[in-house]
Amino acid sequence: MATEAERQPNATATPAGKPAGGRDRDRLRARQFRLLESAMLPAAWVVVVIGFGIAEPSTFLTMGNFSTIFGSQAVLFMLTMALLVPLTNNDIDLSVGAMSGLVAMVVAILNVQQGMPIVWACIVGLAIGLLGGLINGVLVIWFNANSFIITLGTGTVLSGLAEWMSKELTITGVSAGLSNITFNDEFLDIPLEFYFGLIVMLVMWYVLTYTPFGQRALFIGQSREVARLSGFKVGAARIQGFVIAGGIAALSGILFVGTTGSATAGDGNQLLLPAFAAAFLGLTTIQPGRFNAVGSGIAVYFLATGVAGLQLRGYGDWVQQVFYGGVLVVAVLISRVLARRRHGEVETA
After folding, report:
1. Which of 131, 231, 253, 297 has its CA 20 to 30 A from that of 28?
2. CATH number of the 44-348 domain
């Protein structure tokens, strides 16, 4: 006698709904879309380079121009990296620009006015950045406060401290040793500070992508309550994010004073908007939907290339603020649209 299973051989076949072949096609299309999505910004960068190269071949397509683009954006590059861990944790750190400026001022004053060797001045500046990040983290976590408001306040305090320390004067004469190792010395006609930023980017990419720390940060950013119920030390991880942000912001301040050989109160604040623009634009590429170091690094130089090309076309300095602000708005909107699309894919998978 046939068993029940033998009488119904298709009982374990594809469940009701879309056939397996249809679901496979949907998955393939989704993978193709994600691949296209991840490559859109690099492709757009290539298009921008080609476009301005055709429009201004004698000035844009020169080694000097590309050396300027890559070398001049190292401070912004580093400052953008400072934002990534807090943003992955779903925190916003608005103090990184002011921290960069304060560290630049501290290094300049210690070296020029106090006669401290430049290496020790840089170490003190780095320690200040780490301490400032720790203070931000403690204030936000211990008091369950809004990171946007807290870091806006601490950033304003840091800017005020820089003005007080400098007596609103520009401090010049920083040791040439720092300028040499950051801006004057070059490799392949590009200042060394570019390569320092590249190293930090690769470290951040590895940490956020392949380490338990990065996976925890991503989980915490998606849902703190679920992460807490899963046993993660959410508060400690968020504090660590602020400390890392403060430390990398301090490095950007050291690069800044090395590049210019001087420090002025307010240095760093003007880089906050383009840093956020690059971070959110990076959210749309390479690893779409995640704040990622490689995508943000590409975004920095995509923005710098666009600004350089527009300025060579005769537009004034105002175009930089308009371009950065516009890209930030567009990047945020695109990231929201893509997030909604992914949410829909998850629900219909």
Report:
1. 297
2. 1.10.3470
